[in-house]
Structure formats: C-alpha cells, structure tokens
Amino acid sequence: MVSAPTITEEITDLKRSRKAVLLAHHYQDPEIQELADAVGDSLELARQARDFQGDVIAFCGVWFMAETAKVLNPERTVVVPDRDAGCSLVDSCRVEDLQAWKRQNPEYTIVSYINTSVEVKAESDILCTSRNAVKIVNSIPAGTPVMFLPDINLGNYVKRQTGRDNMKIWPGACIVHATFPARRVSQARMQHPQALVAAHPECPGDVLAMADFIGSTSAIVDWCAAQDAPEFIVMTESGVRYSLEKLAPHKKFYFVANEQCNCSECPYMKRNTLEKVRDALRNLEPRVEVTPEIMSRARLPIERMLAVQ
Ligand code: 13P
Ligand code: SF4
Predict the structure, then answer these.
(1) How confident is the model over 292-301, as a mean pLDDT?
(2) Is residue 75 located within the same domain as residue 93?
(3) pLDDT tens for each residue of 28-59
(4) CB atoms within 10 A of CB 195
(5) Residue 26: how many CA atoms within 13 Å on its side-chain side?
(6) 115, 128, 242, 302: which to mutate for ligand 1, most atoms within 8 A of CB?
C-alpha cells in the first residue's frame, strides 16, 4: 500500500511544480526554516527576492516583507502563509498621518524602516533595515533634516551612532523588543556571568547600553558564532535560536522574556505554520497585491536602499 505523502513531501513537490522559492525569516518555526531555500534577515531576504527568477515566492515572514518582495517582482506571484501576519511597527505609522506630517515638514528626507506598509514606503525617500540603518542615514548629506520612521528605539540608536542632531523620530515600537525590561537582562547576567549580550536595535536604549553587540537578526547569529565565548544572552525573538544552534551547536543561548507576553515570541511571525505554507503554495493564496501606482512609487526607495553598499 502506498502511504500518503507527508506535509514536507507535499511542500517539496509544490515548490517544484509551482517553480516556487520559499524564503524564511529567522523568526519562523524550525520546520519552516528547514524547508526554506533561504533563511535570513529582512535585508538578505529582500535581496533574495530581487534576484529570484522563478514564478512564485512563498514568503514565510510577515506581510511587509512579502510586500517588498512583490514590489521587486511585479510580474511574479507572492504568497504569505497567513494574511494576518502583520507587525506592530507597520501599525504604528499610518500613511495618512505621514502624508499630513510631510505637508507640514516638506524639507525633511524620509528614511523608512522596512517594517512599514507599502503605502508608507511609497511616501519615503529611502528605506533601511536594522542591518544597514546607520549606513543609510550616513549616505544622506550632513545637514539634511531627516525623519526616521517608525521605530523609536532603532531611530534613537541610529541617531547616537551617526551623531545627527537634525533627525526626528516617529514614536512607533515593536511589541516584542520594546517591552524587554533592562532589569531582566541584569538578572540574566547575574545567572550567567560568563555570557555576552547580543541585542537587536529595536530594544530600548537601556537594554542596548548593556549589549556587547547590536545588530540585525543575521548579524546577531553570525557574531555569536564567531565569538570564543560559550554563552550568550540574546535580546531578540527566540526563533533565532534555531539558526544560532545550527551554526554554533556547542554554545548556549539564553532568551529573556518581555513584558508584553512574558515570552520572546512575535505573535505575527508565529501565525505561519507548515499547513498554511502548503495551502498557500497549493491555492496561491493569500496573495500579495499592490496597485501599479503604489508599486512604482515604492520601488524607488527600496532600490535606493539596495544600491547602498
Ligand atoms: P531583521 O531585519 O533584523 O531581520 O529584523 C526584522 C524584524 O522584524 C525584527 O523584529
Ligand atoms: Fe514586527 Fe516586532 Fe514582530 Fe519584528 S518582532 S515582525 S518588528 S512585531
């Protein structure tokens, strides 16, 4: 008797028949990362999407990441396993509010974090991610007034690193990173005195002040693997544990619970499941659709970011 295919086999077959690529962020569950053609941070995944040559991108991350992939692939189909895989940062900057702000402050260059809606991207001059934010702001001539949006913690970090005093910052935040309390990092350090601290720049300033390293999800993974230290306190979403342990199986990684959920998981990222990945590839839904007008306006700031080396 022939047994029914496993869900892994179904996804592998669908990827082949659909000429699809499966891109996964580090925050996805291990079984999704295992089936992915590429795992990375948001900048690496945007680059993967830009260079893709097949028919379908199954984006296992959150909606704004898939919208970016769609803008870079107007002729291709882009699906996300769960339509409600959103982001609190995206929600913290509505396009109407940005348009109103721009009308009052037309002299400002708008630098938008990739964690924004495609409509906000269309209103922006250049994008950035956590990996290249300092570099992007430094690429803007000194003296130009900058509005950085929408992450207040990343914005303050960039402001400190670049020394720009003519930089305004939108008051948005990530529900996962912004609620990591510094006192819990201190407690973790007391419990693990040998551990080094690696933090994502979406964390609050007092948490970043305790960090030995600050960087994007992929940068954190690479840095922890490259250090001689055997233990790390990792201040980001706990999905990165899988990439960390894959690259550095003999090291120990500790995650700190935040005050939002008393955990370190992103509720949006965790909406995606293997079943939903299979269904998205089978039905080509939920599908990312962007109007041609927004698509062409959002493309320029994305391409400007990708051109900065
Ligand atoms: P990275 O660009 O570091 O992968 O971060 C994306 C994100 O959403 C962090 O919360
Ligand atoms: Fe958005 Fe925060 Fe989730 Fe990243 S961890 S996708 S910034 S809500």
Answers:
(1) 98
(2) no
(3) 999 999 999 999 999 999 999 999 999 999 99
(4) 20
(5) 24
(6) 115
- Our mutation pick for probing the ligand 2 site, out of 91, 174, 177, counting the most ligand atoms within 8 A of Cβ, is 174
Looking at the 3D structure of the chain, how many domains does it have? Answer: 3
Q: How far is ligand 1, taken at its centre, from the CA of residue 4, in Å?
A: 37
Nearest to 89 by CA among 147, 133, 135, 153: 153
**pLDDT value of position 44:** 97
Q: What is the DSSP letter of 131?
A: T
Which of 122, 148, 174 is at the close of a domain? 174
- 147 and 113 belong to one structural domain: yes
User: What's the predicted TM-score (pTM) here?
Assistant: 0.97
Q: Whose CA is nearest to atom 4 of ligand 1?
A: 41
Give the pLDDT band of residue 309 (cuts 50, 70, 90): confident
- Whether 309 maps to a domain, the answer reads no
Q: What is the pLDDT of residues 223-257, one digit of tens each?
A: 999 999 999 999 999 999 999 999 999 999 999 99
Strands 77-79, 20-25: pairing is unpaired
CATH classification of the domain holding 115: 3.40.50.10800
Residues 119, 73 share a domain = no
Ligand 2 centre from 265 Cα, in Å?
Answer: 9
Ligand nearest the Cα atom of residue 87: 2
Residue 117 structural domain: 89-174
Shortest-distance Cα residue to atom 3 of ligand 1:
216
Helices (H), the chain: 7-17, 30-35, 42-51, 63-72, 88-91, 95-104, 118-122, 133-138, 152-162, 182-191, 205-208, 217-226, 240-247, 274-283, 292-307
Residue whose C-alpha is closest to residue 183's, from 253, 264, 257, 263: 257
Residue nearest to atom 5 of ligand 2 (CA): 266
Kindly give the distance from the C-alpha atom of residue 3 to the centroid of ligand 1, in angstroms, as a whole number: 40
